[in-house]
Specification:
The protein is of the alpha+beta class. The relative contact order is 0.25. The structure holds adenosine-5'-triphosphate and magnesium ion (MG). The site of adenosine-5'-triphosphate has 10 residues, from strand 4.
Length: about 140
């Protein structure tokens, strides 16, 4: 069954949105297969966002991700990668429809609460990076 990597970013944790976000994925019918709270360093955050390392906002993005603890999760279900991104909304919260997580809870692109894998390949890489000891099955 398809799996995706979902991360509640530091602002989502600080604002007390962990339960709300988990509830949305659970109520949709997806299955939580792994979860941990983690504080990551610059090097780890850079690996997670390595595809964006040449972007002008990369350093700001890394500083954002290391600014506090995150909640890392693996969710499973049919089409969970694409559907998870629909539940999350667009990258820029201004473009995200009400009813999506970013549409309901975020304003700034640089504080957009949550990450979701964008492809089968990135889901595989991100799950291996965040859960290297095989705690997800
Ligand atoms: P994520 O990978 O975090 O789920 P995404 O896939 O919607 O988000 P990406 O293009 O992968 O968007 O960008 C990763 C993150 O980098 C975004 O969520 C956002 O926080 C930040 N970001 C993207 N584009 C910009 C930008 N132009 N200016 C500032 N920050 C940006
Ligand atoms: Mg992305």
């Amino acid at each position: 069954m398809e799996q995706t990597f979902i991360m509640i970013k530091p602002d989502g944790v600080q604002r007390g949105l962990v339960g709300e976000i988990i509830a949305r994925f659970e109520k949709k019918g997806f299955c939580l297969r792994g979860m941990k709270m983690a504080s990551v360093d610059k090097s780890f955050a850079g690996k997670h966002y390595q595809d964006l390392s040449t972007k002008p906002f990369f350093n700001k993005l890394v500083d954002y991700i290391i600014s506090g603890p995150v909640v890392a999760m693996v969710w499973e279900g049919k089409n969970v990668i694409a559907t998870g991104r629909k539940i999350i909304g667009m990258t820029n919260p201004s473009d995200s429809a009400p009813g999506t997580i970013r549409g309901d809870f975020a304003i700034e692109m640089g504080r957009n609460i949550i990450h979701g894998s964008d492809s089968v390949e990135s889901a595989r890489k991100e799950i291996a990076l965040w859960f290297p000891d095989g705690t997800v099955n």
